[in-house]
Amino acid sequence: MEQPTPRPAPPGPETAATVCARCGAVAPAGAPPTWTCSVENGTREYFCVDCARANIRAIEGRLDSSWW
Description:
This protein is of the alpha+beta class. The chain has 2 helices and 4 strands, in the order E-E-E-E-H-H.
């Protein structure tokens, strides 16, 4: 069986500015520890403190069933 060609990894949060997926706020030196990270449809998304606090129930409600 033929192996798929590996794709290069996208730049990580330590090399690029992190942008809030909801409001567009920018954290210039990677994701601060107070931001929330979510993997949705195979894509890692970050949410700033304000957006995470405002939407915590929705964020927790969408957890994959294997995590709860």
